[in-house]
Specification:
The complex is a heterodimer. Chain A is mainly alpha-helical. Chain A has 2 domains: about 40 residues, no CATH class; about 90 residues, no CATH class. Chain A contains 6 helices and no strands. In chain A, α2 runs antiparallel to α3. The two termini of chain A are about 30 Å apart. By secondary structure, chain B is mainly α. Chain B has one domain. Chain B is about 70% helix and about 0% strand. Chain B contains 3 helices and no strands. In chain B, α1 runs parallel beside α3 and α2 packs antiparallel against α3. Chain B starts with a helix and ends with a helix. The chains are: A mainly alpha, B mainly alpha. Chains A and B meet through α1, α2, α5 and α6 of A and α1, α2 and α3 of B.
């Protein structure tokens, strides 16, 4: 008989694995490609990539207790900076850059830049103490 | 809410959707990539949320994001 702890481990991880499995089985590669290609042709992909990556940098930045602009850019200027950059990313995606010409690498670049911007100008204030307490 | 699943899963989907090569195919094949992805997801959650947290440690979120992004690109590209 399996140990209780192992059973809990298996059960906890079962949810996300099921999501992946369902996506793999019922969505499939061809459907996913069609969806992504429709985004790419509209120019929405780089902007979506930027926006999601911005939140990932906000939540999952590398340094606990990180301050906006490394402590040199206070509120509300950090909000001004990343909101202006977000508008600029939207303009680049939808208006300025031809989506068909740069669809290969542009979304990936937006992921990297969005993550860096979120981490530097909008880091969530998680301290090491809070992280330890909630662990 | 304090779980490795969110940074990992978000990064995997980011790698899946926003990889730099059009029409990218997984070198592991469709079934192999899915199997690797599910196995790595299970390992990340069990190790990150259950094993390490019991010892008062955790996986760095940026490491999960980086590895998850690469895993999504290589194992599960759209």
């Amino acid at each position: 008989m399996l140990k209780k702890r192992l059973m809990i481990n298996i059960g906890t991880a079962l949810g996300p694995v099921t999501v992946v499995l369902l996506d793999t089985l019922f969505v499939g590669a061809e459907t996913s490609n069609a969806l992504v290609n429709s985004f790419r042709s509209s120019g929405a992909t780089p902007f979506i990539a930027w926006t999601v990556a911005l939140f990932m940098g906000h939540w999952f930045h590398p340094v606990d207790g990180l301050q906006p602009g490394f402590g040199h850019v206070g509120w509300p200027w950090n909000y001004v900076v990343f909101l202006v950059l977000t508008v600029f990313a939207g303009l680049l995606s939808f208006w300025i850059i031809d989506a068909a010409a740069v669809s290969n690498w542009f979304p990936t670049l937006m992921v990297v830049l969005g993550y860096a911007t979120g981490a530097i100008f909008w880091p969530v204030g998680l301290t090491q103490d809070a992280a330890t307490e909630s662990a | 809410m304090n779980t490795t699943f969110y940074p990992w899963a978000l990064a995997v989907y980011m790698g899946r959707w926003f990889h730099p090569v059009a029409e990218l195919q997984s070198p592991l094949g469709f079934a192999g990539g899915a199997a690797v992805l599910m196995a790595s997801t299970w390992i990340v959650i069990v190790v990150g949320d259950l094993v390490l947290r019991r010892k008062g440690k955790r996986i760095w979120p940026w490491l999960l994001v980086t590895v998850g992004f690469g895993t999504g690109m290589l194992a599960w590209p759209a």
